[in-house]
Amino acid sequence: MNFTPLKETIRISKHQGKHIPVFTVVTDLGSAHRMWFSKHVDKLYVASERLRVTARKQGRTPDENIVLTGLPIRHDFAVQADKLGDRTSETGKQYQHQIRQQVLGDDVYDPSKKMVLIMGGGEGVGGLSEIVDQMYIDLVNRGVDATICVVCGRNEKLKTDLEARDWDAIIREANEDGGEQSAGRRRRRRRNRRRTNKTSPLVAAVATPGNVNVVGLGFVTNMAEYMAASDVLVTKAGPGTIAEAASVGLPVMLTSFLPEQEAGNVDVVLESGYGAFDKNPEVIGETVSGWLLDESKLAELSKAASRAGNPNAAKEIADDIGKHTQNWIKLNEGV
User: Fold this and answer.
1) Which among 95, 335, 324, 109 is positioned nearest to 225, based on CA atoms?
2) CB burial class (10 A; 0-12, 13-18, 19+) of residue 326?
3) N or C of the chain: less Cβ packing under 10 Å?
4) Is the dihedral of CA 245, 284, 286, 273 positive or negative?
5) How far apart are the first and last CA of the chain?
């Protein structure tokens, strides 16, 4: 983003003797560079209250020119949000299982299982492999029946590795009594428990292990359907992904963020109450498995996500820009 288009539009407008409206749609969620903001635009569309305040402070944009809309996302999410409705309601749950069966296929779909969607961007980055391993361990050891869908993007190596991974060996290694690696895990568990005040899944392992399967996905083009089908999203703190999840009432577990650029996105999720953040795979696994074991907590997170999301933001922005532009066309006709 830079001021060149705005400056040139103002210059041309003065030369022509007619007003040319300028609109800015801020595509950041929780934090943004000050060059996004100016007091000379006709309308400034922002996705959060945090950015509305920033626009007033850094750009001195008048309140009447700031529109709080939500982040514009693909229309697919508006379609899924409309079909899903309240995912905590009976009709919402029915549709969730319907779309889950559609995306997983009859061979993988199990109506008794929860679904966790793990992603790290189009390139399949972000330490996904370790997060997946720990998620599998926690779900199995806490007796949660679930399907873990991992969006590997263009990372074919990760996808192939997940398909060939010996999951039984991973559980045995995690639960063995001796060994330096297991002892190290136990020490980290104790530190994490003290910090999060949570019971360790390895300590509180249940008599009947969870029935968990892992599905490696390539580059996903129907993300709206996968998010509607899932119970929890595990992802980096990208603004678009967070807004997409909120649009369909999907709780999010954030695992990383780009310094400065995405740090504010974490704050938006935490302040809005529809997710958590931690970089440690063990805490990530503990947190998500805990949500899945607590239906009331999961419903609370989902409702908070729905309140924060706006699946129709793109349409509302386009309609508003169109309305103001048409008004100025009429006004300029008389000049």
Assistant:
1) 95
2) exposed
3) C
4) negative
5) 32
> Would you state the pLDDT for residue 1?
62
Is the CB of residue 84 less than 8 Å from the CB of residue 248?
yes
Please provide residue 315's backbone torsions phi and psi, each rounded to the nearest 5 degrees. -65, -40
How far is residue 282's CA from residue 200's CA, in Å, rounded to a whole number? 9
* Inter-residue contact 46 to 68 (CB < 8 Å): yes
In whole angstroms, give the CA distance from residue 314 to residue 271: 23
> pLDDT per residue over 280-302, tens digit each?
999 999 999 999 999 999 999 99
Nearest CA-CA partner of 285 in 257, 253, 241, 256: 253
Longest alpha-carbon distance in the chain: 85
Residue type, 115: M
Quote the CA–CA distance of 162 and 156 in Å, as a whole number: 10
Distance CA 81, CA 84 (A): 5
How many C-beta atoms surround the C-beta of residue 92 within 10 A?
A: 18
Cα separations in angstroms, 317 against 20, 129, 196, 312, 313: 18, 38, 40, 9, 6
Question: What is the SS3 assignment for 291?
Answer: helix
Q: At which residue do the structure tokens 């969607």 appear?
A: 117
SS3 (DSSP) at 112: coil
CA distance 111 to 306: 24
Q: Is 127 exposed, middle or buried (0-12, 13-18, 19+ CB in 10 A)?
A: middle
